[in-house]
Design brief:
Blueprint lengths: L7 H5 L2 E8 L1 H6 L6 E3 L1 H14 L6 E7 L3 E7 L5 E9 L2 E9 L4 H5 L6
Length: 116
């Protein structure tokens, strides 16, 4: 799994240049962000910061749900909390993604240190 090896370029290879990704964690970690990441360059920057703050990041997949041009990945993060990501595909690339958390405080749920 590319995430567990922290191979950001391998992860991003599945995403469209114009991807829109939403995450309550982005709203908490990136000053002035509304929780919406627009474009692959911005997504790279967001995930680079996340990996910097959580060098032990790893995921274990609990379940995978397949729809029409959509998948939902249900996984446990490195601190054991459940997270879901909904990914929407067009022509084999993710064009839209949504990270969802069971708790309203995504940063605590993710074990991410707040601040610089």
């Amino acid at each position: 799994m590319a995430w567990n090896s922290h191979d950001l370029e391998a992860i991003l290879s599945h995403f469209d240049e114009d991807v829109v990704f939403t995450s309550p964690l982005a709203r908490q970690l990136i000053e002035g962000n509304d929780g919406v990441i627009r474009g692959k360059t911005a997504l790279r920057a967001y995930w680079t910061e996340g990996l910097r703050r959580v060098p032990t990041l790893h995921f274990s997949i609990e379940a995978l749900y397949v729809g029409v041009n959509t998948i939902v990945i249900n996984y446990r993060n490195h601190v054991g909390n459940l997270v879901n990501e909904v990914l929407v595909f067009t022509e084999g690339r993710v064009v839209e993604g949504h990270a969802t958390y069971r708790e309203p405080d995504a940063a605590t749920t993710s074990g991410v240190e707040q601040g610089p």
